[in-house]
Amino acid sequence: MNIACQTTDDRQVEAFADANVWRRSMPTLFNPKTHLSYVKPTAVHTMKSFGLPDIGVAPIAASEPFQLFSPEAVDIMRKEALSDIAQEKHFFGCDLAPFQLRGYATEHAKFSFEAWSHPDVTRIVSEIAGVDLVHNIDYEIGHINVSIPGTRLDHETVPEKERDAVVGWHKDSYPFVCVLMLSDTTGMVGGETAIKTGTGEIKRIRGPQRGCAVVMQGRYLEHAALPTLGGQERITMVTSYRPRSPFVRDDTRLTTVRPTSHLPSLYGQILEYQLENTEARVRHVLKMIREDMRADRVNVKAIKQFLGFEIAQLRILNKEVVEERFVKKGHVAEAVAAQRAAEEAERKQREWSGIVD
Predict the structure, then answer these.
(1) 139 near 265, Cβ under 8 Å?
(2) Half-sphere exposure of 125 (CA within 13 A, CB side)
(3) Which of 108, 98, 93, 189 minimizes the C-alpha distance to 142?
(4) For residue 177, what pLDDT is reported?
(5) Ramachandran region, residue 32 (left: φ > 0; alpha: ψ -120 to 50; beta: rest)
(6) For the chain, which residues score pLDDT lower than 70?
(7) What pLDDT is recorded for position 147?
(8) What's the rounded Cα separation, in Å, for the pair 44 and 40?
(9) Nearest to 107, CA basis, from 144, 145, 138, 146
(10) Helix H or strand E segment including 91
């Protein structure tokens, strides 16, 4: 499905249609001095301010929109994302988000890849998040969500009250996301990010303007991207982040991305970094054990904490790597519902265990 000719701006249509020529003739690379236009967010909301427990890897829930990239940078990112080859090879649709582009940046969006991988951008996102982060995996750089009149698909599995959302109610697969607006939002009505608070109320974070972004600890927030009114496009670019330190727990769940991904790339990159983190922790504990052996002592408590942590992490990882024949392509809502049910069952089990104990 090609959306290049479905925008309302004739100049954009011409640029999109000629995207492949543009990429060959203008090999622009990311330069933070000219392509970054960072202005700190006016506010950063905490989990507690939303009435939610601090169950994440940092206290923050979400930032207000802030300027991140220059107009030139956004122009380049749009052209890369909306090129014919990106759409032909990397289009995915699902019941929560009917038009997505995933995994295209490493091959077909060199500028976008360099931008999101740049230390200055990572530092900005980390400062807002309050924890040292790194982009999760290369496959998740520059994920695109698109809402354009006439492109929505009819999915009976989506509840009626959620069908008009660009991305339906969900929790993200990864700890943090940075969501960048690629559309001109002048005169746009709607387009906010809706977040369910601890009281059951809905908090709306206003939609960012073109070149602006929002940082959110989306793994621990149930949220949705609300639709725009008046037939305007809404194109956002999402890059996911995780804590840099291998000693911080990893709550990655592939529920929302498994049905819309090239699994060899997704599984391979997830396994690579998680096993590298496991290796770093093993080496750390081995050093402690060897030092203790030389000192004729043993720290049983530390060893058991290490083993318990690794068992928990590997159990989660094993659960997330599902055989491809069992993955229902495009059926994210069903997977999210199953995860909600499992989480609720676990919560009730913990409550029951606490009463019994």
Answers:
(1) yes
(2) 32
(3) 108
(4) 97
(5) alpha
(6) 1-28, 148-167, 229-231, 340-351, 353-357
(7) 78
(8) 10
(9) 138
(10) strand 91-92
Hey, is 73 helix, strand or coil?
helix
**Token code pair at residue 334:** 């069903």
State residue 337's pLDDT score: 74
pLDDT value for 140 = 97
Q: Do 224 and 159 form a contact (C-beta atoms < 8 A)?
A: no
Return the pLDDT at 188: 77
Look at residues 255, 276, 277 and name the one whose alpha carbon lies nearest to residue 266. 255
Q: Give the number of other CB atoms < 10 A from CB of residue 151.
A: 14
* Long-range residue pairs from 4-8, CB within 8 A, at least 24 positions apart, any chain: 4/82, 4/84, 4/87, 6/148, 6/149, 6/150, 6/151, 6/233, 7/148, 7/233, 8/231, 8/232, 8/233
Question: Taking Cα atoms as reference points, which of 22, 33, 64 lies closest to residue 46?
Answer: 64
What is the Cα–Cα distance from 157 to 35, expressed in whole angstroms? 41
The first and second tokens of residue 34, run together, are 């000219």
Q: Alpha carbon of 106 to those of 113, 117, 138: distances in Å? A: 6, 11, 7
Cα(36)–Cα(113) distance, rounded to whole angstroms? 14
CB 109 within 8 A of CB 77: yes
> Alpha helix locations (H) across the chain?
10-17, 19-25, 32-35, 71-81, 84-90, 105-108, 110-117, 119-129, 263-294, 300-320, 332-356
Q: Output the CA torsion sign for 339, 345, 346, 351.
A: positive
CA distance 118 to 244: 14
Using the CB atoms, write b or e for 64-80: b if 16+ within 10 Å: bbbbbbbeebbbbbbbb
- Reading phi first (left if > 0) and then psi (alpha if -120 to 50, else beta), residue 310 is in alpha
Q: How many Cβ atoms are within 10 Å of 11's Cβ, its own excluded?
A: 8
Length of the chain: 357
The whole-number pLDDT of residue 17 equals 36
Give the number of other Cβ atoms within 10 Å of residue 100's Cβ.
Answer: 20
